[in-house]
Design a protein that fits this description.
The protein has about 350 residues and is α/β, with parallel strands linked by helices. It has helices at about 55-60, 110-115, 165, 175-185, 200-210, 225-230, 240-245, 265-270, 290-295, 310-325, 335-345; strands at about 15-25, 30-35, 45-55, 80-85, 100, 105, 125, 145-150, 155, 190-195, 215-220, 235-240, 250-255, 270-280, 300-305, 330-335, 350-355. Strands 3, 4, 5, 8, 9, 16 and 17 form a seven-stranded mixed sheet that branches. Bound molecules: NADP nicotinamide-adenine-dinucleotide phosphate and zinc ion (ZN) (2 copies).
């Protein structure tokens, strides 16, 4: 796995030189970049990264869509790998364990949300990349890299029963769709629409179907209809066909909106029954424009949801191991990452790219 000329063993200060791919600006694209991981502390786990999923959030960050990016940036928050070393106070993990890291690598650990295991809602949470560690100056680098050092409290256990490539996307696309379905108690008897069949969308279909719901994929892309059914959807609705959209008015209990770019939120809203819930997980940079009447007259709800906390991420991974659920992926070499971004932007991925870090 080592690139000639770059060692991954500790340097004289104990830091770990690591290989990575980074963006230097919103327009630079991604290219090889040498980074240094911190000297492992007592509670740290050193992970040799095997696979990292490519989330649309990586593209938003690399392109600075949200205006919060920090460069140079090493994206990647769907990480699975093997533990190579642990600090003396680490008790949950040992060398050789297969583990995962998602979107968070730290949080304040004392607020009401941290105490409830909802670290994603902690105002002091530290994102896996393009963020500052709690020292306020060290920038975090993500999973497009050879290894990572993470506090054990933010590392989760991965079953060796599932193919690891397909597990990587569970660390973001998986938990982001699992969490709201559980929060809103989606179950048998519910009609669930999933808007946008990409990385998050295809996991939402798998989870909602596994929970017993009757799932419909709402997609612009007619060519995805056969896949939608294979993923567990009972129905497919093409959102560019006005007749189909009209016929689906007031028919869903929940719609999970996973669309990454500007789109009409009133279209799914009108497809909800009275008291129906539009669950927004997609994160377009533009403001959401909602009409009042469709909300008021049917007492509909529009809610958001952000990834999931560490305990729920572990619960989701255990659920996937028990139910044999993984992401449908296309494995790529790191050198193809820029081309993969272009394909994602064209909705041309089935249904998640995953980087094989052996190619680094
Ligand atoms: P993705 O793989 O690109 O999937 C998005 C899907 O949305 C596409 O496959 C496409 O599906 C549909 N779509 C794209 N552009 C559209 C448009 N203009 N109008 C209507 N539909 C469109 O992206 P992803 O990785 O699933 O991420 C989706 C969004 O979720 C991103 O904004 C990402 O940042 C966000 N996200 C949020 C969280 C959270 O915690 N809330 C976590 C992770 C990601 P069809 O071809 O089927 O129409
Ligand atoms: Zn993500
Ligand atoms: Zn907190």
């Amino acid at each position: 796995m080592n690139q000639p000329g770059i060692s991954t063993s500790p340097d004289t200060t104990g830091k770990l030189p690591s290989k990575a791919y980074a963006a230097q600006s919103p327009t630079s694209g991604l290219a090889p970049f040498a980074i240094s991981r911190r000297k492992p502390g007592p509670y740290d786990v050193v992970i040799q990264i095997r696979y990292c999923g490519v989330c649309h959030t990586d593209i938003h960050f690399v392109r600075n869509d949200w205006g919060i990016s920090i460069y140079p940036m090493v994206p990647g928050h769907e990480i699975v790998g093997v533990v190579s070393d642990v600090g003396p106070e680490v008790h949950k993990f040992k060398a050789g364990d297969i583990v995962g890291v998602g979107c968070l690598v730290d949080s304040c650990r004392s607020c009401e949300f941290c105490r409830a295991g909802l670290q994603q809602y902690c105002s002091g949470m530290v994102l896996t990349y393009s963020a500052y560690e709690k020292d306020g100056k060290t920038v975090t680098y993500g999973g497009y890299s050879s290894q990572i050092v993470v506090d054990e409290s933010f590392v989760v256990k991965v079953s060796n029963r599932l193919p690891l490539q397909g597990v990587a996307p569970l660390l973001c696309a998986g938990i982001t769709t699992y969490s709201p379905l559980k929060t809103w108690k989606v179950a048998a008897g519910h009609k669930v629409g999933v808007l946008g069949l990409g990385g998050l969308g295809h996991m939402a279909v798998k989870f909602a179907a596994s929970l017993g719901a009757e799932v419909t994929v709402l997609s612009r892309s007619a060519n995805k209809a056969p896949d939608a059914r294979k993923l567990g959807a009972r129905h497919f609705l093409q959102t560019t066909d006005d007749q189909q959209v009209k016929a689906a008015a007031e028919s869903f209990d929940f719609i999970v909106d996973t669309v990454a770019t500007r789109h009409d939120y009133n279209m799914p809203l009108n497809m909800l029954r009275t008291d129906g819930t539009l669950i927004c997980v997609g994160a377009p940079p533009e403001p959401i424009e909602l009409q009042a009447f469709p909300l008021l007259f049917k007492r509909r709800r529009v809610v958001g949801s952000l990834i999931g906390g560490i305990p729920e991420t572990q619960e989701m991974l255990d659920y996937c191991a028990a139910k044999n659920i993984t992401a449908d992926i296309e494995l790529i070499s790191i050198k193809d990452i820029n081309a993969a971004y272009v394909r994602i932007e064209k909705s041309d991925v089935k249904y998640r790219f995953v980087i094989d870090l052996a190619s680094l």
